[in-house]
Amino acid sequence: MRSAVLLGCSPQEAEDLVQTTLTRCYTSWDRVARASNREAYVYRVLVNGMHKSRRRRWWREQPTTALPDSASTDHADGVVLRQSLRAALGGLSEDHRKVLVLRFFADLTEREVAEVLGVPAGTVKSRVSRALALLSTDVRLTDHPDARSN
Fold first, then answer.
1. CA 104 and chain centroid, separation
2. 50 and 4 Cβ atoms separated by less than 8 Å
3. Quick one: which of 22, 75, 113, 145 has the most CB atoms within 10 Å?
């Protein structure tokens, strides 16, 4: 579910996406079992499911009668850093966000990420490099005290 959130889904969408992914993998377990890398196969199902759900949805504004409650401010450094990281990831292109999440959060190798996304390994390397360069200049991360110490 965390991978889906980092790929740009809301927590509710991520729950639905994970449920759909698990259902699809369970109903076609013979294909999953035959895969050379089961983890990469499942991530592929997750990414494809995300694309499929995004194609169907209407993403325009929805009018509402009641305004949402204001968010409470949590001063824990870890929460702030996570929020800053999510915001910075949200500012990246979808391709850059995918390679970073699959490569570093899901801990897939470059070859596995390439297999999941259906692109050459060299493309994965260049996207990771460019995405990390963009994150290194993002003020939301560079101004955060924990980001400088790590």
1. 10
2. yes
3. 113
Q: Which domain holds residue 21?
A: 2-56
Name, in order, each residue with C-beta under 8 angstroms of 135's C-beta and a sequence gap of 6 or more.
88, 89, 92, 100, 141
Same domain membership, residue 140 and residue 83 = yes
The upper half-sphere exposure of residue 104, i.e. CA atoms within 13 Å in the direction of its Cβ, equals 15
State how far the alpha carbon of 79 is from the alpha carbons of 69, 91, 149, in Å.
19, 18, 16
- CATH number, domain of 130, equals 1.10.10.10
Over residues 57-73, mean pLDDT: 64
50 vs 29: CA distance, rounded Å: 20
Least confidently predicted of 6-15, 36-45, 67-76, 136-145: 67-76
Residue 109 maps to a domain: yes
Short-list 19, 15, 47, CA closest to 116: 47
32 lies in some domain: yes
Identity of the residue numbered 85:
L
The total number of structural domains that make up the chain: 2
Residue among 82, 116, 81 nearest 99 (CA): 116
